[in-house]
Amino acid sequence: MPSLAPFTRSTDTPGGACGYGTLVDVVPMKARVGSVSPVLFKGGEGCGACYKVKCLDHGICSRRAVTVIVTDECPGGLCGGGHTHFDLSGAAFSRMAVAGAGAHLRDRGQLSVVYRRTACKYGGKNIAFHVNEGSTNFWLSLLVEFEDGEGDIGSMQLKQASSAQWLDMKHVWGATWCMYGGPLAGPFSVRLTTLSAPKTLTARDVIPRNWAPRGTYTSRLNFEASL
């Protein structure tokens, strides 16, 4: 069922607390990003989840919902106290207005909306793993990108080359997970399990033996684009 929530226009923090960096500035995330209150951010485990948000003021809003991707957290103020709150990018905000009224809608500041979870759909992209700067053979840090379906990740495991053992990775912050120990030897296989309704996907040998920090390695797989 849709739920009621207030929201305000986003402050457009570069990259956001989920750690997606410059991905928020390009398609398919561009114009679809949003920050959410802690109750939806879930300490970073809510990163990547998608929501349909629709304005209730039919005097200035169309009946069209906008789909937003959680890329940031809006702490304190209206976002605190257990409230549900969306802080949208200016572009996402404007898309809900009737034709020609985008600027006027942004001037309203806070509005009531209905919202619901929706499946993430990245248009043919597969799940990718970005190796964060500073990663070594003893500390491997991965950022997960472009998860279709539920979008959020509840657990993540890593398997090294020539090993049958899956090792639990630790959720650090945002969409970032890491593995301590080592030395770690690639290629690495990665197993993801979604947060809301556990679904598991295994990307075998997705990160090559000669991986490098700041490298991004794309799998051949993705979750089903539905909830």
Explain how this protein is built.
The protein is mainly beta and 227 residues long. It has two domains: 3-118, Beta Barrel (Barwin-like endoglucanases); 128-218, Expansin, cellulose-binding-like domain (Immunoglobulin-like, Sandwich), CATH 2.60.40.760. The chain has helices spanning 38-41, 90-94, 102-107; strands spanning 3-9, 33-36, 50-55, 66-73, 86-88, 111-118, 128-131, 139-145, 153-159, 167-168, 170-173, 176-180, 188-194, 200-207, 216-218. It has a six-stranded mixed barrel with strand order 1-5-2-4-3-6. Strand 13 (188-194) and strand 14 (200-207) form a beta hairpin. 40% of the residues are buried. Belongs to the expansin family. Expansin B subfamily. It holds the Pfam family DPBB_1.
Number of strands: 15
Label the CATH architecture of the largest domain.
Beta Barrel
Shape: elongated
Instruction: Specify the CATH homologous superfamily of the largest domain.
Output: RlpA-like domain
Secondary-structure element order, N to C = EEHEEEHHEEEEEEEEEE
Number of helices: 3
Pfam families: DPBB_1, Expansin_C
Protein name: Expansin-like EG45 domain-containing protein
Main location: secreted
Organism: Brachypodium distachyon
